[in-house]
């Protein structure tokens, strides 16, 4: 193992050991460790803590969406539209942008690798539904994620949940891909992680150039996936 890989592993271990859930109420140690790692690497989503509760966010967004609808000339007295501002507000806070709230980070149980599994673990065709942060329209695609286990493993569904957590934000695909990579490296305390996303961007498909067929692929590689051609080939196969 290279000195750089050793340093990265030690840093990930340190983040998990030192993260104190008491310093930020309701956050798990794992959520804090992942967020800290992303901030240190400059990969965190641009966001600030505005101190608003869930209900305050819904109320504020509902008011703003009411103004947007009225500005567009929509009749909010119509029974089809009356609840639309509230529906949008709840959708933003509770669903499509819920990944901005680290209290919603999935519960992750790290399991000792008692079987000594060393071979690649790969999950394919993970659904990715996100939102373009430039136009707030849908990103729709699939992800594949792999890692080479060492001392710890996690349940397979946790990989899907981590992908979904980071997808539920205003995103750019490049950042999303690397956020998933760093989150898994931190939680698994291993560098050997690979993430690939193939997605349709509706800011390209439904507006602007209106190209209905183009796909965007991004890939993030760590450890042996970056240096070993055979591992990369197996990952993409």
UniProtKB/TrEMBL annotation:
> Where does the signal peptide begin and end?
none
Q: Matching Gene3D superfamilies, A to Z?
A: 1.10.286.10, 3.30.1130.10
Does the UniProt entry include the keyword Hydrolase? yes
Molecular function as annotated in GO: GTP binding; GTP cyclohydrolase I activity; zinc ion binding
Reading the lineage from the top rank, the first entry is: Bacteria
* Binding residues annotated for Zn(2+), in chain numbering: 132, 135, 203
Which keywords annotate this record?
A: GTP-binding, Hydrolase, Metal-binding, Nucleotide-binding, One-carbon metabolism, Zinc
Name it.
GTP cyclohydrolase 1
Which source organism does the UniProt entry give? Marinobacter nanhaiticus D15-8W
| Gene for this chain | folE
């Amino acid at each position: 193992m290279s000195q750089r890989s050793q340093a990265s592993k030690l840093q990930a271990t340190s983040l998990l050991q030192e993260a104190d859930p008491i310093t930020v109420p309701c956050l798990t140690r794992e959520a804090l460790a992942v967020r800290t790692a992303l901030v240190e690497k400059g990969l965190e989503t641009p966001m600030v803590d505005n101190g608003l509760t869930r209900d305050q966010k819904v109320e504020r967004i509902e008011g703003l969406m009411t103004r947007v609808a009225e500005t567009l000339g929509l009749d909010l007295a119509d029974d089809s539209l009356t609840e639309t501002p509230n529906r949008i507000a709840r959708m933003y806070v509770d669903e499509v942008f819920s990944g901005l709230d680290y209290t919603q980070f999935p519960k992750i149980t790290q399991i000792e690798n008692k079987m000594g599994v060393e071979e690649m673990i790969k999950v394919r065709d993970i659904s990715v539904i996100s939102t373009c942060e430039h136009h707030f329209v849908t990103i729709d695609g699939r992800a594949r994620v792999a890692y080479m286990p060492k001392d710890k493993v996690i349940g397979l569904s946790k990989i899907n949940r981590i992908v979904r957590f980071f997808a539920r934000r205003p995103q750019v695909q490049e950042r999303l891909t690397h956020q998933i990579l760093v989150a898994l490296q931190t939680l698994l305390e291993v560098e050997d992680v690979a993430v690939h996303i193939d997605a349709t961007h509706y800011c390209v498909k439904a507006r602007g150039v209106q190209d209905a067929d183009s796909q965007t692929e991004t890939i993030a590689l760590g450890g042996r996936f970056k240096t070993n051609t055979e591992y990369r080939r197996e990952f993409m196969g």
